[in-house]
Amino acid sequence: MSEDIAFWLSYLTNGKHLTWYASFQFTIFAAVAGGILAVVFGLIGATLKNSRYLPLRLIGTFYSSIVRGVPDVLFFLFFPLAFEQAVEWIWASQVCTPEMIAAQSAAWPPCKAANWILTTPEYLILASVSLGLVYGAFATNVIHGAMRSVPHGQLEAARAYGMSTGQVLWRVQIRQMWVYALPGLSNVWMLIIKATSLLSLLQIADIVLWADRLGAPNFLPAVGLVHDDWRWRYYLVLFVFYILVTLISEKGFNALMRRAGRGMLNEGHH
Amino acid sequence: MDHFFAEVVYFAPAALFNIYFAAASIPLGFVFAVFLALGKDSRNPLLSRLSRGYIYAFRGSPLFIQFFMFYSLALSLNISVWKPMGISWFVLHPLFIGPLVLILNTSAYTAEIFHGALRAVPRGEIEAARAYGMSWPQQFRQVIWPNLIRLAWPAYTNEVVFLFHATAIVYFALPVIGQQKDLMITAKELVERDYNAFMHFSIAALYFLAVSLVVFFLFGLVYQRLMRHMPSRPRMRFAPKWLR
Predict the structure, then answer these.
(1) ipTM of the prediction
(2) Is the pLDDT of residue A267 over 60?
(3) Quick one: fold of B2-226?
């Protein structure tokens, strides 16, 4: 019995497992940064959609409907690649000489000097930005609806006080819309949490990649077969982990909604 | 421009794989979801708890993890179960296990939609049906189901579009066999070859957008038919929402 416990303790705290536990930081970082950026892009998108000028309104509408019309994973792969290439293209226009371009045999980058090598931190930031961009489109929709739910009298009163358009938007409309936006934003947050499982597609050694490595049949010459294919057990752990995160987020958002709804007239909760 | 059209044609067979995954999982997912929704609403605590837990688990975890989990589970049972039965070529094939996981996943999302609609069925109509002496199957068939499907249809359309989008990650989790590649794998391979990310991903995106629009159109027609008794028929707009 005590030998069993000792075995499991040492198994679960070996170097690879510790790296696995540490890799949760990438997932958490991507979720939090992606969530914040999604709200920022959502605010920008909703403001554009509400704009008085047709071109801005079209940009806002185009952004929110096109991004929602294609799968998140497509955007998630496309955006970091496109950003990297754009940077390399600008860089190449500065540093590449015709001889260097002629010497380059690969299709990309234009010359060897303009090669931007991305590592985990860069990929993580790009992944967060693309999460923000994709789910910002969903947040745009939520925030746009919430901004229109702010009672009209409030905006009229603010205008009557002599506030400028910007002041009405920032001090009254955006301050009051959160209560209406929270249920929708909680949904967007759940989507972002689930999308963080895709980090390994951008070569980030995240929890999914480590689960795969740890679960693969493990053979040590000294000990023999440590375990056979245990991958499903590791994925089961992740499955449960994500359900727990969803559960906790749901509880958190419910508390937040109760708090934000204090003193508000709400017909939703009888 | 010619290059663009040539590539659109090149992507067509790949789009069929995405359409196959969605089309293969929609019918069974639909039926399973009806039972799950009824289970969640059931007065039997065990049945209700089980359906509730199932729906929560599959909506609360990423589809990507679900794919990995079920595929690795099937792999680990290979030597002891599938091989002796001689069906491992079938069970482990992405074209089988892909729709299987998608069915499990979409039925949870659809059941949540149906459950919401089930609770929104006007109570008065059910009471009237009971007053007429209808049995439960009669009530369900004549009163509850017609109401439920009309209430749920717009949200269900949305779910089908997102199910189609979800097929984009099938081959990131399951092995690609030979030339059986979907839109994402095709685009990714082409990008790895010539680094033209804008072109290849745009064409894949166009396919997803086009099929989404077709789904909205077809399901809109069904909705019009469902609502044919209404004086002014409500229309459906292309507006994927955040239900998933």
Answers:
(1) 0.90
(2) no
(3) MetI-like fold (1.10.3720)
